[in-house]
Input
Amino acid sequence: MFDFIDDSGGDNLVYAQDGLYIPDAAECMRCGLCLSVCPTYQLLQIDAETPRGRLRTLDKILNSDTAVAGGELKHLNNCTQCRACETVCPSRMQYGRLFDLAREKQLQGKRRGSLLAFLGLKLIEHKPLRQAAIVLVRLYQKTGLHNLTRKTGLLRLFKLARAEALMPEANTGKLARRYRTDKPRRGNVALFTGCVGEHFDRKTLLASITLLNYIGFDVFIPEEQTCCGAIHRHQGKIAVADKMASLNADVFNALDVEAIIYTASGCGLTLNDYEQDNGARFGPSLCDITEFLNRHWPDELRLNSYPRRARKIAVHEPCSQRNLSRPELGNQHQHVYALLEKIPGLIVAALPGNHLCCGAGGVHMLTHPDIADPLGQAKLTHFEQSGADWLVSTNIGCVLHLNKGSALNRIIHPAVLLAKMLPEANGIT
Output
C-alpha cells in the first residue's frame, strides 16, 4: 500500500555530524568488489548503477553544494538498499546510513510530497489510525468492493493497483498480551510484531508463539510497541524513525524478559541498528526467531517426519538477514538451515543466487517495479528450477514480493513449517 510514496527528491577526508566517514568520490578504491553483489548493476550492467557510481551522488548531496542531475538521482533511487556492498567493501563504508542521511538532506525545505504519501506514513506512525484503516481494508476485501475498484480503474488512478495486488488478507483481531506455556517453564520472551506483520503475517506470528510456548517460554506482546521505523528512515524521516526507536526501546525494556524476538528480518535489521543510529538500546538480547529457537531447542524434542519422502525445501536468504551491519551478529541465515534440518525426511537447499537482492527492498518493490520485477522473477525461476516444493523466507516483504504466479502460496516463513511438524500438529496443509 506504499507505491504512492514519493521517490524524487580526494585527499580531504570528510566526516558527517555522527562521525561517519564519507570519502570524496576520488577516494573510492574502484576495486570492483561491489559489482558482483549489486543487484542493479547485475541487472543493468552500467557503472551508474553501482555503489561506487552512487557514491559520487551521495558525496554531492552530503558534502557540497554541487547540483545533482535528475539522471544521477534516478540511479541513486534505483538502489534496493540491500547493503550487500557493505559486506564486501574494503573501506567498510556504511552505505545504508549515508543513503538515509542523503534522503533526509534532500527533504529539507521541501513540501511534504503527495497527500497519499503523507497519509501512508502517518498510518504507519500512529497505531490507532493504522488499526482503523485495517478494519476498512478487511471490509474492502470481504465485501467484493475490490472487484469493483479493479474493474473501474480507480486503483490505477490513485496509484494503488500494485500494492493492492500484493496485499494478503488482512487480520483485524488483536493478539493477546501474554501467551503462557503449558510445558515446563524456562523463561519469558517478548515478541516484536511490526506494522505489517501484525495484520498481514499473523500466521507467522502465531506459529512463532506456538513454537516458543512448546519449548517452554511465555510470550509477551506489548500493545504499546510501534513500527520499527525502517520505512520512515529510508524515506528521510529520520527524526520520526528515532522517536519510534526510543518508544520501542522503552516499551520492551520495561518487560521482565530474557529476549526480544522478531520474525521479520527486515524489522530485525533496523532494530539491531538502533544503538548506532540513534543511541536507543535494548536491555534484553535481540534475536531473530530462528536464532532463538535454534539456540534453545530442547535436545529431546523430535519433530514429525515430513509427509512424503525426499521432499525438498529451498531457502531464500533475505538481504536483511545476510547483510547485517554488525559483524558480531554472525551469519543469521545459518539458523534457518539448522532448524529445518531437524525435520526428518526433508531435503534443505539454498536457493541459487541468494547473494543478490530479490528486489523487494521495503517499498522499493512498489516504487520501482522496473527494477524489482526482473530481480524477483530471477528468484522465482531459480525456485522452479530447483524442484523444491516450498520456498522459505524470513522476511514478510520478500514473501509478498515473490508470492505470485506458480509460486503463489508456496512461500512461507520457516517458523510456519516448523510449527506444523510439532508432535501434536497435523502436518502440512
User: Anything to note?
Assistant: The mean pLDDT is 87. The longest strand covers residues 187-192.
